[in-house]
Specification:
Layout: H1 4-15, H2 29-46, H3 69-75, H4 89-93, H5 99-110, H6 116-131, H7 135-145, H8 148-156, H9 162-182, H10 188-196, H11 201-210, H12 231-241, H13 243-258, E1 264-268, E2 272-278, E3 290-294, E4 298-302, H14 304-335, H15 339-364, E5 371-372, E6 378-383, H16 388-391, E7 399-403, H17 420-434, E8 444-447
Parallel strand pairs: 5-8
Antiparallel strand pairs: 1-2, 2-4, 3-4, 6-7, 6-8
Helix pairs in contact: 1-2, 5-15, 6-15, 7-9, 7-15, 8-9, 8-15, 9-11, 10-15, 12-14
Family: Belongs to the DNA mismatch repair MutS family.
GO molecular function: ATP binding; ATP-dependent DNA damage sensor activity; mismatched DNA binding
Protein name: DNA mismatch repair protein MutS core domain-containing protein
């Protein structure tokens, strides 16, 4: 029942535009209907505003290297033939510092591209990182940033937990040292990453002032907002937490008044505050003691003064928690206008993580920078299978590959287990790695 007009209206409403021409998708009618259905489904299931969904992009087949399901399976890109992660291309290549970097790398492995300007930009950035020997320091710096992509998504949906705020705070604090590391890497792609991940001192300062160092998991537990952030909250907390001194004084006074040295004041969630006296001393209890609970060996009482204190303490605790929840939600309101910028930052830092990871892999595994050419030729000198060479105990025997207009096909012969399939797969993987913007396991490679 979902028609084109409904889909267009829903998408324009989501993106805050009059039409979809600016996204270049206005002619893709079938795709728009599908996107509209998906958007409506998400709205129905989440039942909340989705401000982090800000655009729609049309992917063209001519911009991508097409991989069918059988190819993905047999090349063992991210999953091996047994369904596991071991001995896959992703296992060899993925030493990223962040989960968002790992996800981006796997997406790139599954969606190699043909755009030579984009691929060369990635390759040149990797070269720049290698030239200034930044891999180790960048890896440690990126670990401090963590998976802010998921954190920002939860913040946009107002489902973030207190520790998400501390993760965002840590990421913002790590930006300045990260930018300092990148000053020596002279490369347009890296400069773009720095520009897309600016420091946000106002937001950083707010989170430093508002949230304690190690907050509890849930806001309902309280103790998330830092002391000194809100004077009213500090007053309510002081009242509820300062009750210990009053109770100690009351306990000592009642011991002296009754002559019961073992008398003590306690608290539980069911009965509140109580004065506990052993059965043996029950005859010493004054007339103003009101029995609250009888146990096997003890009697528990309440007196008006203790009841008054209980009401005051419990009231202050509930008021402190209610105010803390209100202040917590105000933090979300302050962060909301920054969501778009934070999303851009997360994407840029995930890109940097992938580039730095591939630079480290190129150094550690002796990979070469491929040359992307406009012809259909493939020329690989001393190529190696990226996965097999990692699991072999003996050195891998490198092989050349030459394919061009005059040499369009190779006939490969040899005994079973002689390496014929490995030779074919290694060629495919080297080409695929070049088309994700990675260095390749070879002495040199020209990929058309």
């Amino acid at each position: 029942e979902f028609d084109l007009d409904t889909a267009q209206h829903l998408l324009c409403e989501q993106f805050g535009t009059k039409d979809l021409v600016g996204f270049g998708v206005d002619k893709a009618t079938a795709a728009l209907v599908a996107a509209g259905c998906l958007m409506q489904y998400v709205k129905d299931t989440q039942r909340i505003a989705l401000p982090h969904i800000r655009a729609i992009t049309l992917e063209h087949n001519e911009h991508a290297v097409i991989l069918d399901a059988a190819t993905r399976k047999n090349l063992e890109l991210t999953v091996n033939l047994s369904g596991g992660f071991e001995n896959t291309l992703a296992q060899v290549l993925d030493k990223t510092a962040t989960a968002m970097g790992s996800r981006l790398l796997k997406r790139r492995i599954h969606t190699p591209i043909r755009s030579k300007p984009e691929l060369n930009a990635r390759l040149n950035a990797i070269s720049a990182i290698i030239d200034v020997q930044l891999c180790g320091e960048l890896h440690e710096s990126l670990k401090q940033i963590g998976d802010i992509e998921r954190v920002i998504a939860r913040l946009a949906l107002w489902t973030a937990r207190p520790r998400d705020l501390t993760r965002l705070r840590s990421a913002l604090q790590a930006l300045a040292p990260l930018h300092q590391l990148l000053t020596d890497a002279s490369d347009p792609r890296i400069s773009q990453i720095v520009a897309q991940s600016p420091e946000l001192p106002e937001l950083q300062q707010l989170l430093e002032q508002a949230v304690i160092e190690n907050p509890p998991v849930l806001i309902r537990d309280g103790g998330v907002i830092a002391p000194g952030y809100n004077s009213e909250l500090d007053e309510w907390r002081s009242l509820s937490q300062g009750a210990t001194d009053i109770l100690e004084q009351l306990e000592q006074r009642e011991r002296e008044r009754t002559g019961i040295s073992t008398l003590k004041i306690g608290y539980n969630r069911v009965h509140g505050f109580f004065i506990e006296v052993s059965r043996a001393n029950a005859h010493l209890v004054p007339a103003d003691y009101i029995r609250r609970q009888t146990l096997k060996n003890n009697e528990r009482y309440i007196i008006p003064e203790l009841k008054e204190h209980e009401d005051k303490v419990l009231g202050s605790q509930s008021k402190a928690l209610a105010l803390e929840k209100q202040l917590y939600e105000q933090l979300f309101e302050f962060i909301a206008p920054h969501i778009e910028q934070l999303q851009m930052m997360a994407a840029a830092l995930a890109d940097l993580d992938v580039l730095n990871n591939l630079a480290e892999r190129a150094i550690a595994l002796n990979y070469a920078k491929p040359e992307l050419c406009d012809s259909d030729d493939i020329s690989i000198k001393q190529g190696r299978h990226p996965v097999v060479e990692q699991v072999m105990k003996d050195p891998f025997i490198a092989n050349p590959v030459e394919l061009n207009a005059q040499r369009k096909m190779l006939i490969i012969t040899g005994p079973n287990m002689g390496g014929k399939s490995t030779y074919m797969r290694q060629t495919a993987l080297i080409v695929l790695m070049a088309h994700i913007g990675s260095f390749v396991p070879a002495d040199s490679a020209k990929i058309g």
